[in-house]
Amino acid sequence: MNRVIFLGGAFALLTAAAPIPSSPDLGKAEGQCRPGESGPALLVDLIGLKDRAGKLKLEVYPANDADFLADDNVLVMAGKTFRRVEVAVPSEPTPRLCVRLPGPGTYAVTVLHDRNADRKFSLSHDGFGFSANPKLGWSKPRAASVAVNAGGGLTTLRIVMNYRTGLFSFGPLKRS
Questions:
Q1: Can you tell me the distance from the alpha carbon of 130 to that of 61, in angstroms, rounded to the nearest whole number?
Q2: Distance CA 1, CA 74 (A)
Q3: What phi and psi, each to the nearest 5 degrees, are found at residue 48?
Q4: CA gap 10, 153 in Å, rounded
Q5: pLDDT in tens, 65-88
Q6: Which of 48, 55, 88, 63 is nearest to 141 (CA)?
């Protein structure tokens, strides 16, 4: 009988744990590179930005389909990798963002160009890109198609930004 009460009490304590409140700051402290960063970290060069308006938001996820683009609160609560860097769009021709990683491994990376900085994604207005630059369709890419390997130091990668190019298509901007 005491064992049943103990198990019931332990279950109540475990289920009563408050979830992490939703916040756009989740993952930022862990993802912020330090001056002279030596790694493990990703240096992400962004190619083909439409303009210099708004903000850039880079996020790092585990490279598996269940966790890729999953809710940040769920990932953090489960102790899984989630990193975020958010900055005003730099004026450099090829902006470079740095994000710290928990260690060497395989990750999936996304970048959002939130052109009006409203923290809401607009298919018709904003741009996005993924590590490994997969061909895009109407659904999210599979984690395997965006997976990148990071070493113990600084790992450089290029992400080509994509914007709406037609009624039902997305892709890099055509430069004239």
A1: 11
A2: 35
A3: 80, 35
A4: 42
A5: 999 999 999 999 999 999 999 999
A6: 63
Tens digits of per-residue pLDDT, 113-128?
A: 999 999 888 888 999 9
Angle formed at CA 129 by CA 106 and CA 71, multiple of 5 degrees: 65
Measured CA distances, 125 to 21, 64, 112 (Å)? 29, 28, 11
What SS3 state is found at 18?
coil
Task: Please answer whether residues 154 and 43 qualify as being in contact, where contact means their C-beta atoms are separated by less than 8 angstroms.
Answer: yes
What's the CA gap between 162 and 108, in Å, rounded? 17
Contact 131, 149 (CB under 8 A): no
pTM above 0.90, yes or no: no
**Ramachandran area for residue 10 (φ above 0: left; ψ -120 to 50: alpha; else beta):** alpha
Please list the residues that pair with 150 across neighbouring strands. Answer: 105
Beta bridge partners of 110: 59, 130
